[in-house]
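Narrative of accomplishments. A recurring question from our advisory board has been how the design workflow behaves on a single, concrete structure rather than in aggregate. To address it, we present the structure tokens for one chain from the evaluation set, followed by the sequence designed for it. No filtering or post-editing was applied between the two.
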């Protein structure tokens, strides 16, 4: 009864919800002068269309935002401009020197935009051109939005590309950026015009060039799609091969409606236009019979698209670094988002609705929730070959050996020799590159005294990658006597760590996220090879394969294990289940309060956490698991390292969730080195205290280096704290602005904003606590944060790749702040009395230094 009533309502051309108030003579097909729909009815009907096209809308908007409005997207375009330029980049490459790969990457990028636009348009057009039994839409009230929504969605990808290049050109005028932006805007306009007049053009083409149309119909790809679709088509057929009532004609055109099929929405003339349009190839009629099945050719094309997507996913999983880099980040974004949007639309929405069933969206999400209980392929992978990591020492024991080795190698020792602790804040590849470059610049400009003073490094997220890269590249230096090390101002080869970090880590991460890990979400059996963590970890390892010993493929504890002067390294992460900090270190951190030791070196292998035998690349990634870009890692046997349990399974995420500066671990390290808190190996504690900078009344002076990478960071050394124990290498030109309450949905956004701002203040609180701990020990606090950027300088992204222009800006900034305070830093690390002020950074340029100073000057100063 209900179905028959619904059938009669649809025959009237109105949604079922409005049938109760509809006059009998209000059928728009019988009354051409029917009253047009009111505003509220149009709003309701338009919202239903938007919900129906949710996947194409999300896909188009997300792709446009990532490319045009995110810092990482703009940086990808900057990198593309650098590749297309004939001028050499920071690695000496030009378009001519890498033409094949650059041309292929540019071709793939352009093709990806076209594929994303057309696939999104096709999916949306299919949805809005049909009436569905389980999702009725008022055709009269939505005629305009149904006509223009697919076209607008198709225009967003090329428009976003043009907008991105236009934004780059607006910051600093670039002829190439203006040209490419104009090209993409022209493509957008041409696409809109082409989609608007495609029927008329194809009708004329079919009339004037019938052989062309026949060639298209008989092309091998069309024939292949038709055969694939025929295999999947289970529609009943008559003996002559024609489709029975309600199905499809053999040629792929809609079958004529019979007495059992429901007529389309709208007046008869609109249905007639749809039927005429269906007689032309490559057309989707405006309105056709509802619940219409797909033609074999169309079904075949959809299945081929799915197979191509899966094939790409398998290829990226097999070659998780080289192949994604060949495609490039821009192409992967458009191919991935466009493909996922198309497949989700056709498989979860159109396919069931065209068969008279409700959408599969709710069952799909329910299946994801259920399979998510066991479908976790993000476990820890031990190092290849099962090599055992060296046993980690307690910090006090390591400090004693470090001090002895420093004296034996001829480094300055005693009361005049400072001991350097580094805290590197998180922030993606920007933090990693800035951390490594600042450390390299200090090493190059200050030479042996800086290298001899480096005692401990604590990193979070990208800062962990930066300190690990610096330690990996300089591991041989830690075992080299001072007399054999190069003097200050050495060759450019000493910038190897930052050069390695200039590689593309974004493409492997995106390939995992949008391809093979996406396939794993619908495959019910966990497959470790489909873990998207592999892309980023393999990219880290590959970048440092030509460094002695391939350090990123070995455990962290193996890094510099042969050299006692190797600094202590702490990589900070967060445990999801209780929010506590977890540390992967080359020393034993069992003494640290309320912290998980991810190594537990005193436990046997079967009782130690699964992170105890992972590679340095995996340990760095555990500290830098960005939200959603990288998954939460699954670890086993998490415990307090006493061997008594309990042993838990848990998930590990980015260390910035807990505290983003790395300074909290430095404070705990100071406590672990305090003799009054020693509980193990007390015989070595006095020596560690006296020679590692822990004595208040004398001994080596502890120095805290805070490396912070956010432009405009509020410094610690200001106001009351600006005294002779604070050395700020960068000038903070921005004044603190008064607080102002937000106006956008404060009831909804205030709790979210509070969570984000309190996270920032926890970082600030950790910095203040660490600085006060060093000041109370007669130490020095040195701040090295990224200077304020000029308006024409691109913002360094928080993603996983940096363009040559951004790297050049970071290089200049690091060189400027170190050179501007070089003499004062030399006095500090040589144990001499500090100067009242640092040098003027512009003096380096006036003296003929090839490194140019930052625009506007960034005066490093010793705060008084």
């Amino acid at each position: 009864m209900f179905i028959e009533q619904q059938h009669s309502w649809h025959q009237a051309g109105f949604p079922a919800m409005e049938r109760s108030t509809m006059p009998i003579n209000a059928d728009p097909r019988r009354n051409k002068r029917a009253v047009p729909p009111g505003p509220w009815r149009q709003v309701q009907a338009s919202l239903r269309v938007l919900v129906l096209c949710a996947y194409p809308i999300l896909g188009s908007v997300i792709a446009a935002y990532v490319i045009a409005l995110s810092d990482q997207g703009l940086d990808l375009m900057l990198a593309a401009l650098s590749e297309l330029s004939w001028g050499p980049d920071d690695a000496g490459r030009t378009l001519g020197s890498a033409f094949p790969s650059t041309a292929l990457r540019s071709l793939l990028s352009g093709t990806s935009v076209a594929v994303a636009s057309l696939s999104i348009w096709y999916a949306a057009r299919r949805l809005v051109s049909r009436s569905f039994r389980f999702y009725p839409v008022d055709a009269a009230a939505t005629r305009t939005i149904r006509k223009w929504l697919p076209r607008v969605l198709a225009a967003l990808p090329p428009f976003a590309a043009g907008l991105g290049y236009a934004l780059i050109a607006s910051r600093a005028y670039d002829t190439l950026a203006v040209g490419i932006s104009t090209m993409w805007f022209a493509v957008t306009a041409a696409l809109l015009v082409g989609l608007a007049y495609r029927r008329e053009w194809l009708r004329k083409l079919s009339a004037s060039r019938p052989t062309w149309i026949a060639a298209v119909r008989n092309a091998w790809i069309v024939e292949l799609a038709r055969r694939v679709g025929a295999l999947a088509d289970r529609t009943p057929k008559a003996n002559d091969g024609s489709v029975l009532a309600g199905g499809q004609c053999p040629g792929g055109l809609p079958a004529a409606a019979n007495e059992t099929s429901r007529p389309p929405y709208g007046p008869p003339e609109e249905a007639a236009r749809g039927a005429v349009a269906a007689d032309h190839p490559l057309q989707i009629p405006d309105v056709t019979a509802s619940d219409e099945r797909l033609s074999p050719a169309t079904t075949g094309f959809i299945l081929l698209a799915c197979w191509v997507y899966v094939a790409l996913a398998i290829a990226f999983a097999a070659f998780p670094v080289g192949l994604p880099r060949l495609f490039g980040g821009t192409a992967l974004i458009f191919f991935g988002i466009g493909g996922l949007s198309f497949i989700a639309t056709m498989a979860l929405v159109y396919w069931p609705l065209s068969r008279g069933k409700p959408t599969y969206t709710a069952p799909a999400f329910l299946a994801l929730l259920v399979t998510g209980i066991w479908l976790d392929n993000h476990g820890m992978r031990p190092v290849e070959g099962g090599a055992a990591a060296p046993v980690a020492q307690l910090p006090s024991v390591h400090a004693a050996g470090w001090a002895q080795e420093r004296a034996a190698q001829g480094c300055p020792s005693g009361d005049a020799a400072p001991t350097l602790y580094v805290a590197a804040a998180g922030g993606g590849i920007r933090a990693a590159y800035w951390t490594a470059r600042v450390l390299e610049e200090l090493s190059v400009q200050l030479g042996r005294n800086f290298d001899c003073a480096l005692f401990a490094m604590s990193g979070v997220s990208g800062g962990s990658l930066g300190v690990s890269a610096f330690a990996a590249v300089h591991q041989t230096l830690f075992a080299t006597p001072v007399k054999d090390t190069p003097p200050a101002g050495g060759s450019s080869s000493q910038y190897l760590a930052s050069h390695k970090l200039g590689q593309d880590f974004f493409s492997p991460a995106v390939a995992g996220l949008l391809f093979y890990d996406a396939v794993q979400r619908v495959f019910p059996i966990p497959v470790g090879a489909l873990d998207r963590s592999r892309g980023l970890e393999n990219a880290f390892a590959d970048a440092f394969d030509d460094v002695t010993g391939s350090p990123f493929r070995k455990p962290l504890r193996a890094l510099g294990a042969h050299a006692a002067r190797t600094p202590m390294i702490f990589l900070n992460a967060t445990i999801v289940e209780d929010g506590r900090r977890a540390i992967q270190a080359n020393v034993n951190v069992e003494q640290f309060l309320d912290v998980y030791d991810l190594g537990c070196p005193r436990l046997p292998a079967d009782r130690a956490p699964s992170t105890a035998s992972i590679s340095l690349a995996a340990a760095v990634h555990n500290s830098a698991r960005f939200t959603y870009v990288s998954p939460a890692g699954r670890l086993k046997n998490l415990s307090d390292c006493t061997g008594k349990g309990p042993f838990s399974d848990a998930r590990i995420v980015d260390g910035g969730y807990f505290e983003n500066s790395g300074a909290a671990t430095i404070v705990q390290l100071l406590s672990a080195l305090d003799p009054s808190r020693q509980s193990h190996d007390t015989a070595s504690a006095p020596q560690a205290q006296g020679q590692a900078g822990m004595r208040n009344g004398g001994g080596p002076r502890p120095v805290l280096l805070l490396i912070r990478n956010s432009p405009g960071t509020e410094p610690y050394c200001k106001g009351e704290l600006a005294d002779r124990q604070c050395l700020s290498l960068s000038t903070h030109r921005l004044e603190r602005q008064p607080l102002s309450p937000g106006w956008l949905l404060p009831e909804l956004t205030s709790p979210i904003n509070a969570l984000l701002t309190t996270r920032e203040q926890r970082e600030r609180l950790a910095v203040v606590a660490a600085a006060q701990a060093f000041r109370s020990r007669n130490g020095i606090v040195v701040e090295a944060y990224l200077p304020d950027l000029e308006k024409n300088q691109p913002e360094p992204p928080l993603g996983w790749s940096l363009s040559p222009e951004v790297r050049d800006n970071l290089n200049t900034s690091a060189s400027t702040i170190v050179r501007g305070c070089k003499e004062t830093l030399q006095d500090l690390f040589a144990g001499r009395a500090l100067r009242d002020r640092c040098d003027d950074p512009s003096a380096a340029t006036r003296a003929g230094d090839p490194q140019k100073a930052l625009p506007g000057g960034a005066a490093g100063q010793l705060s008084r």
